[in-house]
Amino acid sequence: TTGMLFGVLVQHQLVSSITLGIALRYVLEALRKSPPGKMTKFGLCALEQFKERLSGWPQYCSHILQIEHFKALAPELYVYVQNCLSSSVTSGGAFSSSVG
């Protein structure tokens, strides 16, 4: 799917920093759409592909966790994002202003 391709590009760092910010915003906006829908599925699929990079983006994780329906939509992914945020904050990770 398009979401999978999009996520893989982010995961493997195949986009520049400016393009990365735009890509992450697209995924965040897709996740904010009311489920069920194609955009929500796109966002979840993309996020699943690059979730291993989330610990480097604590502010982005925070934005994801603020989405009301996210926990009900993807409970395991919700916990994963929570853990990424927690580990980033406890390790002194700086909040990035370039995403979100």
Concise synopsis of the structure shown:
The chain contains six helices and no strands. The protein has 100 residues and is mainly alpha-helical.
What are the SSEs and their pairings?
Layout: H1 2-11, H2 17-32, H3 38-50, H4 58-65, H5 70-73, H6 75-90
Helix pairs in contact: 1-3, 2-3, 4-6
Polypeptide structure, described:
By secondary structure, the chain is mainly alpha-helical. The protein has 6 helices and no strands. The model has no long low-confidence stretch (mean pLDDT 89).
Strand content: under 5%
What percent of the residues sit in helical stretches (DSSP H or I)?
55-70%
Highest CATH level, the class: Mainly Alpha
Approximate shape: globular
How is the quaternary structure best described? single chain
Describe the main β-sheet briefly.
none
Radius of gyration: 12 Å
CATH H-level name... which superfamily? CCR4-NOT transcription complex subunit 1 TTP binding domain
Return the average pLDDT rounded to an integer: 89
Structural category: mainly alpha
How many individual helices?
A: 6
Number of domains: 1
Distance between the termini: 24 Å
Supply the CATH architecture. Answer: Alpha Horseshoe
Q: What is the CATH fold-level name? A: Serine Threonine Protein Phosphatase 5, Tetratricopeptide repeat
Order of helices and strands: HHHHHH
What is the total tally of β strands? 0
Question: Which regions contain 5 or more consecutive residues with pLDDT less than 50?
Answer: none
InterPro entries: CNOT1_TTP_bind, CNOT1_TTP_bind_sf, Not1
Organism: Timspurckia oligopyrenoides
Domain CCR4-NOT transcription complex subunit 1 TTP binding: 2-88
Protein name: CCR4-NOT transcription complex subunit 1 TTP binding domain-containing protein
